[in-house]
Amino acid sequence: MKYNHFYIVKIAIVLLLSCVSVFAATAETAKEADKAVVEKQEVVLTELEKFYGTELKSEKKVVHPPYEWGDCTVCHTDAKGEGDLIMDPPELCVMCHEAQDTKKFIHGPVAAGACTACHNPHESDNAKLLIASSINELCVSCHQAKDEFLHKTTNIHPPVKDQCTNCHDPHTEDHEFQLKADGKKDLCVMCHVDKEVWTKEVTDKHGALDRPRKCLECHDPHGSENPKFLIKDTNKELCLTCHSEKLVTDETGYKLQDIGKHLDKNPDWHGPILWGDCAACHNPHGSNNLRMLKKPFPRTFYEKFDEDNYICFQCHEKEKIQEEFTKDMTNFRNGEHNMHFVHVNKEKGRSCRACHDFHGTKEYPHHLRKKTKFGKINFPIRFIETENGGSCAPACHARRHYDRVEPKVNLK
Ligand code: HEC
Ligand code: HEC
Ligand code: HEC
Ligand code: HEC
Ligand code: HEC
Ligand code: HEC
Ligand code: HEC
Ligand code: HEC
Ligand code: HEC
Ligand code: HEC
Ligand code: HEC
Question: What are the residues whose beta carbons fall under 8 Å from the beta carbon of 22, sequence distance 6 or more?
Answer without folding.
Answer: none
